[in-house]
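Inputs:
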Amino acid sequence: MSFLTIENIKKSFDNETVLHSLNLSIKEGEFITLLGPSGCGKSTLLRTIAGLIHQDEGKIHIDGKDVTEVKPKDRQVGMVFQSYALFPNMTVQENIEFGLKMKKLDKETVKQNAAKIVELVELTGKEKSYPRELSGGQQQRVALARSLVTRPKVLLLDEPLSALDAQIRKNLQKQLRSIQQELNMTTILVTHDQEEAMAVSDYVYIMNKGQIAQSGTPHEIYTRPVNEFVARFIGNYNVLTREEVSNLFKGEKNFKNKMYAIRPEAFSEDRILDGYEISGKIQKTSMLGNITRFELEANHVSFIADRLHKIDEDAQKQETKTLYLNRKDVIPLS
Amino acid sequence: MKKPFYHYITIGIVLLYLLIPLLGTFQYSFATSWHKTILPEGFTIKWYVELFGDLRFLKSLGRSLVMSLGATILTLVIMVPAIFSIVLYAPKLEKMIQSLIVMTYAMPGIILAVGLIRAYSTSGISMVLITIGAYFVGILPYMYQGTRNSLRNINAESLMEAAEILGASRYTAFQKVIVPNIISGILVSSLLSFSILFGEFVLINLLVGGHFETVQIYLFQKLSQSGHIASAIVVCYFLLISILSAIMIKMTRKKKEPV
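Outputs:
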């Protein structure tokens, strides 16, 4: 039974279609991500769910209720903005209490709920500070607390972590996920960072040009991209044409699709039974922390292969490398 | 970096040039008589006593205050919500406001006055109200700039969205979130508008003149009677404007400093 459904949402701005008849359905307590490059319509979709943008066509249901024509203030959704949008004239406490006061709850309830959420996002001791006195990560946690405290039916996150540096972002991702699970909050995250999407979501929707290019669990998306766009977007896939693949695996003729994708880490240095064998010339070696990336050329086809970093790296001296690949790791794209 | 000494000399000359008339006026307002000497022959406060003893002065001061404050408050109440709505919800209309503002600059005071007299003198509407109306238009540019810049600074659009999603109506959001954050910017433009209107002479003199004496008209008339009293008026006026400016500077500074 889906908790939030989006049917045939269409939206265009100035004759340019941003969303093409989108359909989506999310179960209660699920954490889904809308992933895509900038301009793919993911933020527009999120803002349409919030009611900040009115769709041209289509319907939105939340918890069995048609909210298509409901104003944002009555939709019972929470939203965290990329720019945080904290109220600068209010303290952390007042920012968090704002939504509760708008619900006209009594003072005691307001206080208790706010205190609980402050503890949950680990902001204890900062209640009396003003937003400008906090660091970016703390401000983001205030924004999160402010949205969570009213117990919205759906939490919408619009690139909430993109303005933070890598370390804080990783920590907040973990925190976000654990808070979401603790409250069993149905959550939609918008991001252009595929690692972030993989790390936190139950389900990922990859968007391109106002349409959903692929949807699935992070594992499905990563291991089985269905088309060229997804393969190029979600990692460092080798995306090769039919001719290139045939050249690479000399003697193989039964490639029927136009494009194929191969994960760089699928190449192995150990022999694989009934697999492909490729010997390639090393063009370039780069060290990317925990992995070593080889740019190779075999039969006039360039490709990359990754391997976990080894302490006694002698790759620089080598000129050619023999690699093996499972047949199922050559993924046909549509 | 050490600044060359001629910088100081240049600044000194400019300062002297600006300050000497003020200093002269200030001394003249306290002078018993000042004819053939470099400095006044003696000092007295009798011009001030006379000035503040004159009911006409106090009345004209009151009129000036009512006119300037009235027009400023009217602009504040009407234009701030209007500019807010236009900037956020009807950005296409912003061009119209901008052309309206350019027109206020394109219109010289004397032409404005003659035009207003021709248009309204036979309409039966009090010319005082017409003047307030003209003032309203006259201070539009300051109010528009001040309000719009404050709205931009606080990123009003996302604050409104955040407040609305948290369950606030647009009116509540404007009142509780937007106004407290733009109030200092708006107050500065209001003070500026007020001091400009307080010193306005051309329109008020031509439109209502002697029927409705404001401080500026009173000053103009005193100028031909007693230089000492005229100087005293200027000093009082200057003092008031200085106080207003000081408040403005303090308010703009406060905004930038973290509390």
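Remarks. Chain B touches chain A through 20 residues (CB under 8 Å). Residues 1-44 of chain B form one domain.
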